Amino acid sequence: MNRTQNMATLLEKIQSKEARVVVVGIGYVGLPLVVELAHAGYRVTGYDRDPSKVKQLNASTSYIEDIKAEDFAEYVKSGKMDASTDESVIKEADCVILCVPTPLKKTKDPDMSYIEGAAQTVVRNQHKDMLVVLESTTYPGTTREYLVSELLQGGKYTLGKDVHVAFSPERVDPGNAKFGTRNTPKVVGGCTPACMAVAKALYSHIVNTVVDVSSPDAAEMSKLLENTFRAVNIGLVNEFALICERLGLDVWEVIGAAATKPFGFMPFWPGPGLGGHCIPIDPLYLSWKMRGLKMPARFIELADAVNTAMPEHVVEITARALNEKKKSMKGSKILISGVAYKRDISDFRESPAADVIEGLLKRGVEVSYMDSWVPVFKEGEHSFESLKPDTSYAGFDAVIIVTDHKNIDYVRMAKEADLIIDTRNAMRPYGEGAKATIVRL
Ligand code: SAJ
After folding, report:
1. Could you tell me if residue 388 is inside a domain?
2. 244, 292, 333, 337 — which has fewest CB within 10 A?
3. Is residue 320 located within the same domain as residue 382?
4. Cα of 350 to ligand 1 centre, how many Å?
5. 204 and 269, same structural domain?
């Protein structure tokens, strides 16, 4: 079979929905993708090393807040969709999409072990005429330099003929009820025109808009720009918070006023630090790459320095506020309100709450937390259980609002607490006449 025939076969299978798809990694990115693929009519299997995720998916139980079990129970029932811990499902796959984590090592260098593990899993089960797409956020060049070289298996396969490779960044915004997999435009960069055609054919069945770019590198870089844009702008407003504090200005008022400009401005808000598995991490993949090329990505590194210093700043303003009440940090009882990395979700990965808690513990503070989204909060050697949502705020020397969940009773907090350190401007509507002293970022 020649090049065009190979591609035609794979394309035909994709167009006719005969193609079998395996998604490697069924977390907050992979599960929604599996559901969309089944919804589009593909036979799709989620492969994961985590037996609990596999078991829950096969039992039509959702473990991702944004995906409801009723969104996919019918597909599991009909056999369109299932999950497995057995990598040999890839032997039957025409298309494989890799949605594995790309965390940082302790050294803040990229931890490529998940991508490497996924690539080797595909290689062990590879066959002719496969499409392999990487969705995990990574530094430019990963797909073309690493993934392709692994999949060619030393000449056993030919790129664009019997193996097609592309990069298409995930754009999942946890907790975003408006934008999901289908209605968020999808950038796709193929390694060759044939790879692009095959990848675009698949994605055009599961998202409303496919955005072609000229290479996987451009696709990788566009994702890094999206997240760097957020990290740098959050770093900017965090620095503005420090400057406004020094000048005796209210940074929330200043940003609110600037945000009335109907063009040329996009508000970001200061906070206790940067959480989540994306924004504090992904830009450092690029700065790591550029350091290797002796060209520092200065905005990324400066934003990281400002954002990672915010938890300590929160501890500092807490110490100053207690001091004003002639109280020391040592031996004081402080309640953290909200530990998730952002409002109204249960995910606490990379949450700044961990760093705030660590800073307080180092100063001899007796720390508790309250977050009905996060019943148990594990960080390093610490493991805490959330206090009940109706626990009185009166028993604490200070309450620090780290995450401004909507389900918190701020009126009661204003009445009962003695001191509130508000890092999210959550108390603005409730401050008038409050018994509590309220200190804002
Ligand atoms: N944060 C601030 N100030 C802000 C906005 C956010 O301090 O003005 C903090 C949040 O509290 C959180 C962190 O930054 O700790 C990240 O927040 P985020 O709103 O960027 O949320 P993520 O990381 O869950 O999701 C982001 C996506 N968010 C949006 O586009 C709104 C998007 O950048 C990516 O789709 C996603 O990361 C990803 O997967 O990269």
Report:
1. yes
2. 292
3. yes
4. 12
5. no
Q: Is 385 helix (H, G, I), strand (E, B) or coil?
A: strand
Q: For ligand 1, is residue 165 a contact (CB within 6 Å)?
A: no
Going by alpha carbons, the residue nearest to atom 20 of ligand 1 is 279
Q: Is the dihedral of CA 304, 237, 371, 331 positive or negative?
A: positive
82: amino acid identity, one letter: D
Same domain, 178 and 264: no
Does the Cβ of 314 fall within 6 Å of ligand 1?
no
Count: domains in the chain: 2
CA 397 to chain centre: 34
pLDDT class for 2, splitting at 50, 70, 90?
low
Tokens 């009723």 locate to 70
Which atom of ligand 1 is found nearest the CA of 223?
A: 40
**CA of 345, closest atom in ligand 1:** 24
CB of 234 closer than 6 A to ligand 1? yes
Q: What is the pLDDT of residues 65-94, one digit of tens each?
A: 889 999 999 999 999 999 999 999 999 999
User: Are 185 and 276 contained in the same domain?
Assistant: no
Quote the domain boundaries for residue 99: 3-214
- The DSSP line for 273-295 is ---SSSTTTHHHHHHHHHHHTT-
State if residue 252 touches ligand 1 by the CB under 6 angstroms criterion: no
Angle between helical axes of 352-362 and 298-324 (0-180°, round to 10): 50
Distance (angstroms) between ligand 1 centre and the Cα of 107 equals 23
CA of 224 to the centre of ligand 1 (A): 13
The CATH number linked to 423 is 3.40.50.720
324, with CB counted inside 10 A (0-12, 13-18, 19+), is exposed
Span 129-174, pLDDT tens digits:
999 999 999 999 999 999 999 999 999 999 999 999 999 999 988 8
**Mean pLDDT of the residues in the chain:** 95
- Residue 230 Cβ inside 6 Å of ligand 1? The answer reads yes
Position in ligand 1 atom list of the atom nearest CA 172 = 35
- Calculate the alpha carbon distances from 201 to 13, 34, 192, 434 in Å: 10, 16, 14, 59
On whether both 208 and 286 belong to a single domain, the answer is no
Spacing, Cα 335 to ligand 1 middle (Å) = 25
Q: Which atom of ligand 1 is nearest to 277's Cα?
A: 23
Nearest CA to ligand 1 atom 21: 173
| One domain for residues 281 and 413 | yes
pTM higher than the cut 0.85: yes
pLDDT by residue (tens digit) across 218-267?
Answer: 999 999 999 999 999 999 999 999 999 999 999 999 999 999 999 999 99
- Confidence label for 49 from pLDDT (cuts 50, 70 and 90): very high
Q: Active-site residue 278, yes or no?
A: yes
